């Protein structure tokens, strides 16, 4: 029973030299399928839901190729990896839509803390109570997905002390989100937040995981994992997604994995523990020391991910996507993007050189994958 999956991909645009340049107004006016963020320096595209990993791979690559071709028409512009303004520009907000009142609120309330790029992974789950159960489990394990995806160790040319500066400084809103025990509790809570003004609208729920759908909070049909930094390599992203899908399928088969059943901690204690784990993962990613939600034991993020990988492998194999899960081992072995960049930085490579090399690397990787896998569907 493969689940449907889709992505929201936010990326910065700029020069091969690493300067981030706001072009989203031109992009969204000229290309279908791209939407503006409040700041014009990044742009978002969304892949159509699919249960096929092969199809998802090309759905990730083809809009990016289209965007790269368009950027070349505008000038010497390209796509820039990372989830923060790595080489500069965090001192100012560059509005994409000066007349949008919600964007006014975002700029005035949060400033450039929200001018980040990321990946949101959506997994289709039609039963609202199963969806809430999945949100509970993935919420307490979200720090592990952050650890795998961290790609924002720099801001304004300096190492910040975080592996994911994006999540380290991101204004999670509202500040405390429950582990919803039911769909009904979620509806009541959202209605109360809207009435109190702690949420400006139903989209203004910025937590690591949230239930999503066409008429939130009433009609829900997917889990949205929002904690991940931008993962530029599609193979790595699909491996992270395969871990997420296999874990949810495991939960569907065994509802006893629900943290409200399987943990010795109360829901409030789990929220506090998870918040601390998120900050630890934002700081040290795969090397972070975390508390396990079931019994409170201390475990390295790397080792916890390896444990889950082993436990879900057969689920992935039985559902035909274990080959997409297996590249996760490479991330565990070699490190995530932030760790690789910081290794270079520690031996004296400048932040500028690290980022310009990364820009070239993702371009070359996309070309390689397109030629190997997606060339037959490129128009």
Characterization of this structure:
This protein is an alpha+beta fold. 49% of the residues lie in helices and 12% in strands. Strands 1, 2, 3, 4, 5, 8 and 9 form a 7-stranded antiparallel beta sheet that branches. Strands 6-7 form a two-stranded antiparallel sheet. A hairpin with a 5-residue loop joins strand 2 and strand 3. The longest helix is centred in the last third of the chain and has 24 residues. The radius of gyration is 20 Å and the shape is globular. The two termini are 32 Å apart.
Structural class label: alpha+beta
Mean of residue pLDDT values: 96
Shape: globular
Radius of gyration: 20 Å
Distance between the termini: 32 Å
Number of strands: 11
What order do the helices and strands follow? EHEEHEHEHEEHHEEHHHEEHHHHH
Helix content: 40-55%
Percent of residues in β-strands: 5-15%
Largest sheet: 7 strands, antiparallel
Low-confidence stretches: none
Helical stretch count?
Answer: 14
């Amino acid at each position: 029973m493969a689940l449907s999956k889709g992505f929201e991909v936010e990326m910065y645009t700029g020069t091969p030299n690493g300067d981030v340049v706001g072009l989203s107004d031109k992009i969204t006016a000229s290309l279908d399928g791209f939407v503006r963020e409040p700041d014009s320096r990044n742009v978002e595209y969304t892949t159509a839901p699919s249960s096929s990993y092969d199809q998802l791979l090309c759905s990730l690559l083809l809009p990016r190729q289209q965007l790269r071709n368009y950027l070349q028409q505008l000038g010497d512009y390209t796509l820039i990896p990372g989830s923060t303004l790595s080489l500069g520009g965090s001192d100012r907000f560059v509005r994409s839509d000066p007349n949008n009142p919600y964007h006014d609120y975002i700029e005035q309330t949060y400033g450039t803390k929200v001018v980040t790029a990321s990946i949101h992974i959506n997994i289709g789950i039609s039963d609202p109570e199963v969806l809430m159960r999945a949100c509970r489990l993935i919420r307490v394990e979200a720090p592990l997905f952050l650890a795998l995806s961290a790609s924002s160790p720099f801001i304004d040319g300096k190492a910040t002390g975080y592996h994911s500066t994006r999540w380290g400084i991101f204004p999670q809103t509202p500040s405390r989100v429950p582990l919803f025990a039911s769909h009904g509790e979620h509806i009541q809570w959202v209605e109360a937040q809207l009435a109190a003004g702690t949420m400006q609208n139903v989209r203004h729920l910025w937590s690591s995981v949230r239930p999503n759908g066409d008429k939130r909070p009433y009609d829900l049909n997917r889990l949205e994992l929002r904690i991940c930094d931008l993962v530029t390599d599609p193979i790595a992203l699909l491996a992270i997604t395969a871990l997420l899908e296999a874990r949810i399928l495991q939960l569907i088969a065994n509802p006893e994995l629900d943290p409200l059943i399987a943990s010795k901690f109360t829901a409030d204690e789990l929220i506090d523990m998870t918040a601390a784990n998120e900050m630890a993962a934002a700081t040290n990613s795969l090397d972070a020391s975390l508390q396990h939600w079931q019994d409170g034991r201390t475990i390295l993020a790397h080792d916890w991910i390896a444990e889950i990988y082993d436990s879900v492998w057969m689920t992935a194999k039985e559902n035909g996507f274990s080959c997409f899960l297996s590249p996760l081992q490479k991330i565990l072995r070699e490190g995530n993007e932030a760790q690789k960049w910081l290794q270079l930085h520690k031996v004296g490579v400048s932040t500028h050189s690290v980022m310009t090399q990364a820009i070239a690397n993702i371009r070359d990787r996309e070309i390689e994958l397109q030629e190997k896998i997606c060339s037959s569907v490129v128009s």
